[in-house]
Amino acid sequence: MKTSRRTFLRNATISAVAGLPELLQAQNRLNNDPLNDALGLVTASLSSHISSKSGVKGKFTLLELPKIMRDELDLKVIDFNTMNFHTYEPAYLEKLRSAADDAGCLMTNLKMNQKVDMSSSNAETKAKAMKAYKQSIDAAALLGLKWVRPLPRTPMPDMKLHVQAYHELIDYAGERNIVVLVENFGWMMKDPDSMVKLVREIDSKGTAAGVDTGNWVDNNVRYSGLEKSFPLAVTCDFKAKTMGPDGGHTAYDLKRCFDIAWQSGFRGPWCFEHGHKDRNRAFRELGMLRDWLRKWTA
Fold first, then answer.
1. How many other C-beta atoms are found inside a 10 Å radius of the C-beta of residue 292?
2. Which of 78, 112, 176, 226 could form a disulfide with 260 if both were Cys (CB 3.0 to 4.6 A apart)?
């Protein structure tokens, strides 16, 4: 019986946190994974162009996005953000799933960006967070997603409470065949070891990393953090900040970020996180990123 990538990586993460080379070797054996070299989009990139209602001039709905991704951007993987959903009604989610299937898109992840605190010592505050996250996990299950990611807050959490909250989410999501990810954001952005530390703290419950190339406080932390984190990654937000007319990117070296990922054994999916208020410019620059990644992965 063939082991799914989700199950394989979850088990590999549990067993290899103390020895990352073992996980690297495991990842490199997954040569037939359909997400290898797959390129996609983080929907938050186009938030200024997404409307909850159809027919809004110059905008499109989330239901229309899969076809636009395939026809206009030639991208396949959709990484959702809760900010782009106006409802979790099952009928709507079924339409979205059908739209993605019809367009030949793969839906993988839901970034749960609700402004809540799952690690709070206040029982009411934590309960509110868990309710919101579990509703999102239920939506992710209806969409057939592989992963969800809770939002790291800016203040450093009480690690005991944080890990307990992760365990609760992992148990709930696991019953729905979904893995809960760790992402380098908020309090984690200053420490290049933060993702590996948190995965180790979560320990036998199992999790994996969703690495964002842009979410680090500076380049010293960035490149070191990427080297440490990519061996645990199952997905990547390949983030670009402001780009020049010729595609120049002065904030950090995009090719170096890619090389670190590739040398770690990471092969995809690569989900672009980049946008602009001008739709034509946003799509043109996303096209540049797409073409670069295709060249580099080749």
1. 16
2. 226
19 vs 23: CA distance, rounded Å: 7
Question: Which domains does the chain possess?
Answer: 5-25+34-297 (3.20.20.150)
Q: Report residue 177 as tokens.
A: 């065949």
pLDDT digits over 119-178, tens only? 999 999 999 999 999 999 999 999 999 999 999 999 999 999 999 999 999 999 999 999
pLDDT per position as a tens digit, 19-32: 443 444 344 435 56
CB atoms within 10 A of CB 154: 8
How many residues does the structure list for the chain? Answer: 298
For 232, the 3-state DSSP assignment is helix
Q: Is 129 left (phi over 0), alpha (psi -120 to 50) or beta?
A: alpha
